[in-house]
Design goal:
It is a multi-pass membrane protein. The chain has 780 residues and is an alpha+beta fold. Helices cover 53% and strands 19% of the residues.
């Protein structure tokens, strides 16, 4: 029995070689994308954890300026009951370094450490390294190699405080937290001699401490983070500092990678659905074309179960055969994907073959194909031998003739195209679904690409970063009165705003508490429901906090800072990816209820159109010497987005290319099947005077309106519902409302490209009709 089923399956494959090849390619592409997406999604978290264990990354990391309070911070960590180990080492913090990254001049912060210092946490580890080194050797995070193209032995230069520093790249380091552009400063290493030379050259102003803490109970790290942040704030530190939990830093690094992986998986599943639609179309077409043969098989003793089993074997075999090269190709593509991942997480991604992901992809695709093939072939059970041999009612078309040729007012060629169009409604519906799904995917990625490369305001709103030119931090707490007003009055300044952060808590849940004098001045608005606080008893909390604490607008929520607790009225719900969505906002007066001696230490400066930030910084220093630490926020935002732009652009190109390939394959399959089915009809039409070009045009225009409908539906869905799709991808991060910018000409151009390619492919495939001749019809 098995051999009989196998022979039937092989016979079906041989009779439909082109259809089998088309299905093979579709499944191979689907498995390729699905395997990559699953590999990244399933492996990313464990990969980061392995690196943390290897490098002994601490549970809490902090850097802060060297001052008389350092012993107090160390005493706090030492006395914390869950501290297992801690160490504090010297570091240099350069808050506004100008570098060339990815071909662009950008600004970033450097956290410089001595590689020769004794440390047991956050170990110095290189992916590659020069054999020789001296005081001019610098060790950079791996993203400079993977994301910017630097190599060992290259010259690397940066500017700080109007001075240029040039070094030789001696190696690239793996760093789970400070190895990317998303977690503040980049961790840079020098040898002992080089570190001391740089320290002497830069002076005491950049001297910081780098504190690492390992806990014996991970759940207690939130409390220590809060206490340490409060103590640093309370000591009057005005310089930049950071206290970060490892889990927060890791999540921030992998957010973007997870988004891309999710998009790949969804697109791969769309490809699987397309394959399932094609299988259904093939089975129905096979049953219809071979109705008499099925009747003969049943009359000769074959059961419905055997015939159905042959279909199942046929498509499962194609699925398995296509999955193997799909998985193998993913191994070849994975180094490119791994390079993008490494640029995002700061760790060298291994390019090994993941057997589990490959088997999982194969299982998903095969089970779905088996299920759809079974449902589609059940129709065979209702076919009796006598009905199949008689054909008759089973194959006759009782549908209304909407375009009778005898009375139509249309051109005959056009009327024939319309008759063909309305005669194959199920096939047309299949094509519309496929083209609409693919067009939606392409439009969605195109819109996403535009928001990373063009209008970045929506992305920055989601991240929660303020779009300002410069951030000015006072170097001393006892600053001259009126200094902020003097900065605002400078001729180059359009406006200033205040937006500072403090680590606070509610019911032992730590979050970032942002403070501003007027939220209406901010360019980045994060509240999606309600409003920002205006009075001193009001607060806006993120959707993540609201869901965690079961709070809504109108409720009160307790906020604790530095041992003081106050209740605030919730006036709005906000959203942002930054700080994993754990953010709330209050007014300056509201902050003074928690910290009576609160004073502004940081301002955002927005320059007028056309003003040069560097010229303004120089003028600022001349007017207020030694008063401000200046950070070029706009450059830092652009550099952060630049690490993701290449990945989004690549994914957009891949999905657009796959869309064009799949549309071409589907048209090839449909048109070839159409010519085979209507070979006799086309021969008759040639006999009465129709040329090959006339018939090619007729075939093309019987399908082209369907393609147009699919492209229109897919583009409209992409235009109006890309926001909703993006919200679904980010819902786990507390994002509930997204308004992506849309470049309409770009969307229209993409639609036009799909339509032009579809038309050209249709005409090229329809050229097969030239082989149909009247002579062959007579001889047959």
């Amino acid at each position: 029995m098995r051999s009989l089923i196998g022979k039937l399956a092989w016979s079906n494959i041989r009779k439909r070689k082109s259809a089998t090849i088309t299905l093979f390619l579709l499944i191979m592409i689907a498995v390729l994308l699905l395997n990559i997406g699953l590999t990244v999604s399933l492996k990313l978290n464990s990969f980061q954890q392995e690196k943390i264990s290897k490098l002994n990354t601490p549970d809490i990391t902090a850097y802060f300026p060297v001052n008389e309070h350092v012993k107090e911070y160390e005493s706090l960590v030492e006395s914390y009951p869950y501290t297992e180990a801690w160490e504090n080492e010297s570091a240099l913090l350069l808050p506004d370094v100008k570098i060339n990254y990815g071909g662009n001049n950008t600004a970033i912060a450097f956290l410089i450490l001595n590689m020769d210092s004794q440390r047991s946490m956050g170990l110095f580890n290189t992916t590659s390294r020069l054999e020789t080194e001296d005081q001019s050797t610098i060790y950079l995070p791996y993203i400079f190699h993977g994301g910017s193209g630097y190599n060992l032995g290259d010259t690397f230069s940066f500017e700080y405080d109007n001075n240029k520093f040039t070094y030789t790249i001696g190696g690239f380091t793996e760093e789970p937290l400070f190895g990317t552009l998303t977690n503040g400063a980049l961790k840079i290493f020098f040898n002992d001699e080089g570190y001391k030379q740089l320290e002497a050259r830069l002076g005491k102003e950049v001297q910081f401490n780098f504190l690492s803490v390992q806990l014996n109970e991970r759940a207690k790290e939130v409390k220590l983070e809060q206490k340490l942040s409060e103590q640093i704030f309370g000591s009057g530190t005005s310089s930049s500092f950071l206290v970060m939990r490892t889990d927060v830093g890791l999540e921030g690094n992998r957010v973007f990678v997870n988004i891309l992986a999710a998009i790949l998986i969804v697109f791969a599943l769309i490809m699987v659905v397309i394959s399932l639609i094609v299988i259904r179309f093939q089975i129905f077409g096979n049953i219809e074309d071979n109705l008499t043969n099925i009747g003969v098989l049943k009359a000769n003793g074959y059961t419905s179960r055997q015939i159905i089993s042959s279909f199942l074997l046929q498509f499962v075999s194609v699925s398995i055969m296509a999955s193997i090269p799909g998985s193998l190709i993913s191994v070849l593509v994975m180094p490119l994907v791994g390079n993008m991942i490494s640029s995002s997480v700061g760790l060298l991604w291994p390019t090994t073959f993941e057997v589990f992901s490959a088997l999982y992809s194969l299982l998903i695709v095969t089970v779905l194909i088996l299920f759809v093939a079974y449902l589609s072939s059940r129709k065979i059970r209702r076919i009796t031998p006598i009905a199949a041999l008689q054909s008759g009612l089973l194959t006759h078309n009782f549908k209304k003739n909407h375009f009778p040729l005898a009375s139509t007012s249309f051109n005959l060629q056009f009327a024939l195209s319309l008759k063909s169009l309305f005669r194959q409604t199920k096939q047309n519906f299949m094509i519309v679904l496929i083209v609409a799904g693919l067009t939606f995917s392409s439009i969605f990625c195109s819109i996403l690409n535009f928001n990373f490369k063009g209008d970045t305001s929506a992305v920055l709103d989601l991240v929660g970063l303020e779009r300002t030119n410069l951030q000015l931090d006072l170097k001393k707490t006892d600053h001259a009165p009126g200094i902020i007003a003097e900065v605002e009055a400078m001729s180059e300044v359009q406006k200033i705003s205040i937006l500072e952060g403090r680590v606070a808590s509610t019911d032992d849940s730590s979050f970032m508490l942002r403070v501003s004098d007027d939220y209406a001045k901010l360019e980045t608005q994060t509240v999606y429901k309600g409003r920002q606080p205006i009075y001193d008893n009001e607060i806006a909390i993120s959707g993540v906090i609201a869901k965690m604490k079961n709070k809504s607008i109108g409720d009160e929520i307790p906020v604790t800072f530095n041992g003081v607790t106050q209740n605030y009225l919730v006036t709005g719900l906000s959203q942002q990816i930054n700080q994993l969505g754990m953010v709330a906002t209050i007014t300056e007066d509201g902050m003074r209820k928690l910290q009576p001696n609160y004073s502004v230490q940081s301002i955002n400066v927005y320059l007028k159109e056309g003003e040069d930030p560097q010229a303004f910084i120089q003028k600022l220093e001349e007017r207020f010497p030694g008063q401000w630490n200046v950070t070029n926020i706009l450059d830092m935002l652009e550099s952060t987005l630049s690490t993701f732009t290449a990945a989004v652009s690549s994914m957009t190109a891949v999905i657009t290319a796959v869309t064009i390939i799949v549309v071409s394959l589907i048209l090839y399959l449909v048109i070839k099947t159409l010519i085979m089915k209507r070979k006799r009809e086309f021969g008759i039409l040639k006999g009465i005077g129709y040329t090959t070009f006339n018939l090619m045009t007729q075939i093309t225009f019987s399908l082209f309106p369907v393609i147009v409908v699919g492209v229109v539906l897919g583009s409209l869905a992409g235009y109006f519902y890309s926001d909703s799709a993006f919200v679904l991808l980010l819902s786990s991060l507390g994002i509930y409302n997204v308004q992506l910018a849309v470049n309409l000409p770009q969307v229209l151009l993409l639609c036009a490209v799909i339509l032009v390619v579809a038309y050209v492919v249709s005409m090229l495939v329809a050229r097969r009709i030239r082989k149909v001749s009247v002579y062959d019809m007579i001889m047959d």
